[in-house]
Each structure stands twice: as C-alpha cells, then as structure tokens.
Amino acid sequence: xxxxxxxxxxxxxxxxxxxxxxxxxxxxxxxxLFGLTSQLRRAAVSVAANLAEGAGRNSKKDFARFVDIALxxxxxVETLLKIAENIGYLSSxxxxxxxxxxxxxxxxxxxxRKYLKHT
Length: 119
Fold this sequence. Notes:
Blueprint: H1 9-25, H2 36-55, H3 60-86, H4 92-117
Helix pairs in contact: 1-2, 1-4, 2-3, 3-4
C-alpha cells in the first residue's frame, strides 16, 4: 500500500486544502502565530499526513484507523475555522469556501473508511 495514497483524490484535495489554510492564516494577527494560526495549520496538514502514514501501514485495518484520525483532524479544522470567523480573522466568504472543502474532504474520507473496513 505504501505510495497508493498519491493516487487518492482525497489525499490530493487534502494537500491543496492545507495549502489554502496556510494562505488564509497568513493574514492572522502576529499574536496568533503560536495559537490559532499554528493549531489550524497543524490540524490541516495532519489530514493529508495521516492518509500518507496510514497507507504505509501493513493492513487495511491500520489504514482505516489513520483515516479515522484524519477525520478527527478535519473536525478540528472545521471548529477552528468557525472560531476564526467568529472573532473576525476570516471573512464569511473565505470561511464558507474553506468550510465547503471540509465537507467535501469529509465525505471522501468517510467513503474511503467504509471501503477499507469492508474489503
């Protein structure tokens, strides 16, 4: 399974999403660099990183566990995005676009998890 993740659309979308999070947080206040900015970036990167790590494991069961972890990280990102919007760090339009990405990636991760657990 090692590099099969590179062919997964959800992995590619997750990498793009993490890149978008970095761009969106670039304008956050400097005082948030080690707070919300860092936490959002780490959680977003974790989605794609857990897919890559899980694909390198020895079984579909292990891979599915890492997909579950990626879903948890995605939920964290979604929560942090809402907080960032609420305190005025993200405009509603930027928040909406990023939120839509979390929904799309979440559906794809759910499908991958289902596939891995039933094959």
